[in-house]
Write a structure and sequence with these properties.
82% of the residues lie in helices and 0% in strands. By secondary structure, the protein is mainly α. The longest helix has 22 residues.
Amino acid sequence: RLGRLITEQNLIAIEQYHQGFHHLSALDRYNDLLASRPEIFKRVSLSTIASYLGITNETLSRIRAKQS
């Protein structure tokens, strides 16, 4: 039962990621990540975050500059 619950949670998280990836703009994906996991920006390189969001490093830099 525990294994099934963990698997269901993982599948839901993956589905949410894929839907967000295809239907949200780069700015919206960035803001969602910032809202849900702000600590990740302290632990992971910006190039890795850009790759996860499906954008270039330059686009991520522009988004971060506008947010400041």
